[in-house]
Amino acid sequence: MTRDEARSILFELTKTDSLRRHARSVELVMEALARHFGEDEEKFAVTGLLHDADYEKYPDQHPGVIVKKLEEMGEAEIAHAIAGHYTKWNVPRNSLLDKCIVAADELTGFIIAAALIRPTRLEGMGAKSVLKKLKTKTFAASVDREEVYKGAELLGWELPKLIEFIIAVLQKHEDELF
Asked: 20 to 30 Å CA-CA from 158: which of 60, 69, 81, 149?
């Protein structure tokens, strides 16, 4: 599947700019993780782009609708990664793709939320300030902190390293994302 095909599916299912921006930010992080690990950048990017594609239209069935669609299209690996992008769904994370989407999703959203309240957005942001915000339970309360920690653990990275990695990716696209 190409990114253009994935974007078409995303735009068909997702109408709000905020969820589309989240998809785009996770797409960028996944592409960078693929590059870092020497994996298929297109496959990782498509996974990031589509991981929440059905959330807005089918919140009670998420991620089942997009997973089924991808399986029907012959995209079993991407479908599996999306099916398990939240660890509490108890889908095994067998591949690096499966692990990266968990590492990218919640933390990318959290970093964006933290940047939105800063006058300089991502400029000058570091892991220390993000870690401090993570300890504030009322800030971005819908972000599952446990998922953030599990994501870094799945990659075998210290959380500050993953935060810095994601910030660096997002900084390159700041004009587009904010």
From this structure: 81
Mean pLDDT of 8-26: 98
| Domain CATH for 68 | 1.10.3210
| Domain hosting residue 146, numbered range | 3-177
For tokens 């990659």, the residue is: 155
Alpha-carbon span 20 to 122, nearest angstrom: 19
Please give the tally of structural domains in the chain. 1
User: pTM score, two decimals?
Assistant: 0.97
**Secondary structure, 3-state, the chain:** CCHHHHHHHHHHHCCCHHHHHHHHHHHHHHHHHHHHHCCCHHHHHHHHHHCCCCCCCCCCCCCHHHHHHHHHCCCHHHHHHHHCCCHHHCCCCCCHHHHHHHHHHHHHHHHHHHHHCCCCCCCCCCHHHHHHHHCCCCCCCCCCHHHHHHHHHHHCCCHHHHHHHHHHHHHCCHHHHC
